[in-house]
């Protein structure tokens, strides 16, 4: 497995996290991180990547140093995201927009993005606005998650005009009651729950930690997430059911969104959702692969806009 002091290789070229973590610089930006620094058996200075509090401190330091985000935090037991991997999704989404805009990266406040399940960490809106100045709506079903995300925004007043939060009152819906009749979104994104049950989630975590390796990092996977609430990690039917439901629901909003997208954790899920993609009659779709060292992830993108509608969208919204 990968060395946790080094973000996974082969990240997106614009990803800021290409090199080994520069712990002295990060500690200078966020002195709290120094409290978690230890000397490994190999004589290196690093944090203990099996300690959830150390991971949170690292995330706070990364977000402050690279993106100017102050006071990031999440309640105990909530999903703690690996920053390099989350940033990769954002950069690949930017490339997706550029592929629809003659290779030009659309930047600025005219780009509207909807994050389905922004969670307590609000990570995609934070990185997406910092990197590309996009406007975000972060939707979630859980009030406590939204309260945590709002606390992060309150610590960063400059973000208040660019990231708005909205509660989804129906846990079976993604877009309904969030997308209003006059809304237009250039992108939607989602990191869906992928386990089918709490039991499967528990077994998966046990497999991950059965041989966690030594603290020197020789066998600890730095992409592991710590914590996670039920709605973040599992749902009935797992990611196949969730993504299938999302695709079917997206039909009624097809004229209001340029690209719908969703992360897909398992290669086998692509075959399982293929009949649904054919059923709804989309105009175009893509599967984009993201390689991060030994780990390969992917997301699907689909659109209902006709060529004429796409051209008009580009002219009116992207200049």
Task: Map the helices and strands.
Elements lengths: L22 H7 L7 E3 L5 E3 L4 H16 L15 H17 L12 E5 L6 H10 L2 E6 L2 H12 L8 E5 L17 E6 L7 H12 L20 H4 L4 H13 L6 E8 L2 H14 L3 E9 L2 E9 L3 H11 L2
Parallel strand pairs: 3-4, 3-6, 4-5, 6-7
Antiparallel strand pairs: 1-2, 7-9, 8-9
Helix pairs in contact: 1-2, 3-4, 8-9
Describe what you observe in this structure.
It is built from 10 helices and 9 strands. It is of the alpha/beta class. The chain has a single domain (77-317), classed as Vaccinia Virus protein VP39 (Rossmann fold, 3-Layer(aba) Sandwich). Helix 1 packs across helix 2, helix 3 (83-99) packs across helix 4 (123-132) and helix 8 packs parallel to helix 9 (267-280). The radius of gyration is 19 Å and the shape is globular.
What is the CA-atom radius of gyration, in angstroms? 19 Å
Compressed to H and E, one letter per element, the order equals: HEEHHEHEHEEHHHEHEEH
Strands, count: 9
Could you tell me the mean pLDDT? 86
Q: Helical residue percent?
A: 25-40%
CATH-defined fold name: Rossmann fold
- Poorly predicted parts: 197-230
From the spread of the alpha carbons, the general shape counts as: globular
Distance between the termini: 45 Å
Provide the β-strand percentage band. 15-25%
What would CATH call the class? Answer: Alpha Beta
Helix/sheet category: alpha/beta
The major sheet is characterized as: 7 strands, mixed
Number of continuous helical runs: 10
Tell me the CATH superfamily: Vaccinia Virus protein VP39
Number of domains: 1
Kindly report the spatial arrangement of strands forming the biggest sheet. 5-4-3-6-7-9-8
Catalytic activity: adenosine(1618) in 23S rRNA + S-adenosyl-L-methionine = N(6)-methyladenosine(1618) in 23S rRNA + S-adenosyl-L-homocysteine + H(+)
Function: Specifically methylates the adenine in position 1618 of 23S rRNA.
EC number: 2.1.1.181
Family: Belongs to the methyltransferase superfamily. METTL16/RlmF family.
